[in-house]
Amino acid sequence: MGACSSFAGWEPGAGPGTRSSSGDGASPLGGRPRFFGSLEEDSVTALRAYYDGIHGRGAFDNLPAAARADVLAHSFEMRQEMLTTREQYMPPISCGELSRVTTPVLIIRGENSPPVFQLISDELARCLLSDTTVVIPGAGHPPNAGNPAYFNQVVGRFLASH
């Protein structure tokens, strides 16, 4: 038995990290947007575009001040992710590689998650041989925030059974 007996993850980042199962090597999501590529000096504008792209137009500006500050606190990491090549920051993994994972995996997404996260979750579930996929009722992105009691119950049960 390895150091990890199970893995619980939820909604991987929007940057494509899986290759298409069609074998063509392409991501199921196409190219990754480069919000910081043209806006290198303006993190607020770049993060607004990113956040609004996931949650809908105006969502960033409608955040409470503390939540907006929390998003901005991650601007350095976001900048690094968006300015490096996909292979440097998040190397692609093929469906064949994922099929070799034998550790039980819990894939979680919110019922109201943006379509991009549903695509990623569906592709991961299709490729993994030992996965459990759960949709958190009433939750969006991130699913743990939309229905924390249900989320904690799902993760707790998964970890207890693996």
Question: Which descriptors apply to this entry?
Answer:
162 residues; mainly alpha; Rossmann fold; 2 domains; 8 helices
Please name the CATH architecture of the largest domain: 3-Layer(aba) Sandwich
CATH first level of the largest domain: Alpha Beta
Largest sheet: 3 strands, parallel
Instruction: State the share of residues found in helices, binned by percent.
Output: 40-55%
- Number of helical stretches of at least 4 residues: 8
Radius of gyration: 17 Å
Order of helices and strands: EHHHHHEHEHH
Number of domains: 2
Mean pLDDT: 74
Write out the CATH superfamily name of the largest domain.
Answer: Alpha/Beta hydrolase fold, catalytic domain
Number of strands: 3
Which outline best applies? globular
Here the CATH topology of the largest domain equals: Rossmann fold
Which class do the helix and strand fractions yield?
A: mainly alpha
| Strand line-up across the major sheet | 1-2-3
Q: Termini separation (Å)?
A: 12 Å
Strand content: 5-15%
Q: Which spans have pLDDT < 50 for at least 5 consecutive residues?
A: 1-40
